[in-house]
Amino acid sequence: MLAPVSSSPVALIIIDMQQGMRRMPAESRNNPQAEATILRLLSAWRAAGQTVVHVRHMSLTPGSPFWPGQDGAEFQPELQPLPGEHVQEKNVPDVFTHSQLERWLRVRGIQRIVITGVSTNNSVEACARSAGNLGFDTLVVADGCYAYAKTDFDGVPRSAQEVHAMALANLHGEYAQVIGSEVALALLA
């Protein structure tokens, strides 16, 4: 069981919850409740006065829905950052690459991070791998992430749940602990 936060800061990192994600076909993803779970975590983090980091993907590919200036690059309205909440932009899947996020967290004494967002097998997994390798106490909220159906390297179609479960399996015990949202919320008790 994980110890509650007490006096140690813990950051909630919300990855790529942008309007462009809503353009993806809903039937090709899992965890349809993920946004509500993330909102519940965000509300709890704010109420507890803990650190929130909003990650926004800014594509380098013209025409992408995440290209700067496109409405798809904007945060989903219900998950908008508040003044004072850190926004970290990225243009590769891993938010720690080409950014000062590691230093930003360390300067604030943050050793434990809780990761949510999209997609489990892409930006979430990349962020969690780097965080674990950098020595952060890294927690990934399984019901606060989602993935999309994908064909594997052997040409076998995989459901979104299979892609999600494999990504979490890649992380758990190696780079991070995979937890549920109730365990994440208990950290704030």
Mind sketching the topology for me?
Elements: E1 10-15, H1 34-48, E2 51-57, E3 86-90, H2 101-107, E4 112-118, H3 120-133, E5 137-146, E6 150-151, E7 157-158, H4 160-171, E8 177-179, H5 181-186
Parallel strand pairs: 1-2, 1-4, 2-3, 4-5, 5-8
Antiparallel strand pairs: 6-7
Helix pairs in contact: 3-4
Explain what the structure shows.
Residues 11-181 form the Isochorismatase-like domain. The chain has 189 residues and is of the alpha/beta class. The protein has one domain (13-186): Isochorismatase-like (Rossmann fold, 3-Layer(aba) Sandwich), CATH 3.40.50. It is built from five helices and eight strands; from the N terminus they run E-H-E-E-H-E-H-E-E-E-H-E-H. The protein has helices spanning 34-48, 101-107, 120-133, 160-171, 181-186; strands spanning 10-15, 51-57, 86-90, 112-118, 137-146, 150-151, 157-158, 177-179. The chain has a six-stranded parallel β-sheet with strand order 3-2-1-4-5-8, sandwiched between helices.
Main sheet: strand order: 3-2-1-4-5-8
Structural class: alpha/beta
**Total beta strand runs:** 8
**Helix proportion of residues, in percent?**
25-40%
Beta-strand residue percentage: 15-25%
Distance between the termini: 13 Å
CATH superfamily: Isochorismatase-like
CATH class: Alpha Beta
The helix-strand sequence is EHEEHEHEEEHEH
Q: Counting H and I runs of at least 4 residues, what is the number of helices? A: 5
Q: What are the low-pLDDT stretches, counting only 5+ consecutive residues below 50? A: none
What is the domain tally? Answer: 1
At CATH level 2, the architecture is 3-Layer(aba) Sandwich
Characterize the biggest β-sheet: 6 strands, parallel
Would you tell me which CATH topology applies? Answer: Rossmann fold
- Gyration radius, in Å: 16 Å
Spatial shape? globular
Mean pLDDT: 94
